[in-house]
C-alpha cells in the first residue's frame, strides 16, 4: 500500500510527508532511467513497479519469515478448535513461490481490517 500510494497512514503527519517525498524521488529516478516509463505519471510508475515486483516482495515477507512468525490467522474449520491455517507459508516448502497467494493488496485497505 505504501509503495502504491494507497496506504491509510495514521501516524505522525510529518513522517507521512517525508515518506511520500522519498517515494516520489525514488519513482522519479526509476522513471528517468527506463525509457518506456518517461511518458507515465508517477502513480503509473508506482503501479508498474509494484506489478513487476510484488511476487518478490511477497517472497521476502513470507518465505524468509521464521517458523513462529504469524502473518495469517487461522480461518478454516467449523469452530475455533478446528481452525487451520496455510502450512509451510503457503508455497515456500518446496521454494515454489510462483504465485502470490493473495490479492489483498488490490482490496482497499479499509476493507481488509
From TrEMBL:
It comes from the Eukaryota. Gene3D superfamilies: Duffy-antigen binding domain. GO terms for cellular component: membrane. Residues 1-112 form the Duffy-antigen binding domain. GO terms for molecular function: host cell surface receptor binding. SUPFAM superfamilies: Duffy binding domain-like. Coiled coil: none annotated. This is Erythrocyte membrane protein 1. It comes from Plasmodium falciparum.
Amino acid at each position: 500500500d505504501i509503495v502504491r500510494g494507497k496506504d491509510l497512514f495514521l501516524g505522525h503527519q510529518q513522517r507521512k510527508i517525508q515518506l511520500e517525498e522519498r517515494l516520489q524521488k525514488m519513482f522519479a529516478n526509476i522513471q528517468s532511467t527506463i525509457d518506456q516509463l518517461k511518458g507515465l505519471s508517477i502513480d503509473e510508475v508506482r503501479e508498474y513497479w509494484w506489478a513487476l515486483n510484488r511476487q518478490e516482495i511477497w517472497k521476502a515477507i513470507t518465505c524468509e519469515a521464521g517458523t513462529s512468525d504469524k502473518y495469517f490467522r487461522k480461518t478454516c474449520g467449523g469452530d475455533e478448535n478446528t481452525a487451520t491455517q496455510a502450512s509451510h507459508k503457503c508455497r515456500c516448502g518446496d521454494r515454489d513461490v510462483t504465485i502470490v497467494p493473495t490479492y489483498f493488496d488490490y482490496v482497499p485497505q479499509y476493507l481488509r481490517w
